[in-house]
Amino acid sequence: MGKILLIDVDGTLVNYENQLPASAVDAIRKARANGHKVYICTGRSKAEVYPNLWEIGLDGMIGGNGSYVEDHGKVVMHQLITKEQCTHVVDWLHARGLEFYLESNNGLFASEHFETAGEPVIQLYSARKGKAGAEQLRVRDVFPDMIFGGELYRDDVNKISYILGSYQDFEDAQKEFPDLQNGTWGGAGELALFGDLGVKGITKAHAVECLLEYLGADRADTIAFGDAKVDIPMFECCARSVCMGSGGEEAKAAADYVTAGVDEDGLYKAFEYLGLI
């Protein structure tokens, strides 16, 4: 029986400038031709999965760090932040002067000043990933379809990311929102630049379990590919795990195998090593 491959997007399938290596496309197409199933497993919501990714050929996706599961266009599981929770978060972030964006399958909805406040943070994030020209990046380069001026009190939100003024903002958010899943994300070394808030109890691992149950598949046939701390629950859930050489040290330590970097044909080399192609 073919394997079920669960591939993180940012830092694994694409680099942190949203560039998709041709070798990664080749690897996935060859693996699917060999009878393996391929799902992206990402923090992105469906609105951020742009056509170039679907055009690779995918069997489905796990999105929102585990809040959404889709197989061949069929929604398997989708858990949303309630409108009341969203309103509470938006009002709290406004009161603290923190800029943010709401992640929905219907789009990314930015706070009033996110484009300006987010630019230096996005640049620092990319620079920490070792990317040349990071100082030239703009918010619209990273989020080309982000919606500015849209409704912020919503009932279709998977998760909310906000710019950290300091780590204290994250610690205070944990106290303010015990009913939500609190996390952080950043650049190399897992240094926190953003906080995020999602559905309580949702992880990539939980979503993998939902997908396997739907497929009637065996955990023994799963292989996870990632690069960051948020991928560790997925590593632990799957039978085998691979971290990109350009990934964080915690993720590397948690993986069964470390391949080359995302820009060094790391995904293709991992597929070869595992006998998938």
Concise overview:
With 277 residues, the protein is an alpha/beta fold.
Give the CA-based shape: globular
**Major sheet, described briefly?**
8 strands, mixed
- Tell me the CATH architecture of the largest domain: 3-Layer(aba) Sandwich
Helix content: 25-40%
- Compressed to H and E, one letter per element, the order equals EHEHEEEHEEHHEEHEEHEHEHEH
Spatial order of the strands forming the largest sheet:
5-4-3-2-1-12-13-14
Q: What's the Cα radius of gyration? A: 18 Å
Number of strands: 14
CATH class of the largest domain: Alpha Beta
The CATH topology annotation of the largest domain reads as: Rossmann fold
Could you state the CATH homologous superfamily of the largest domain?
A: HAD superfamily/HAD-like
- Count of separate DSSP helical elements: 10
Query: Quick check: average pLDDT?
Result: 93
Classify the beta-strand content into a percent band: 15-25%
Number of domains: 2
**Low-confidence region ranges:** none
Structure class = alpha/beta
Distance between the termini: 14 Å
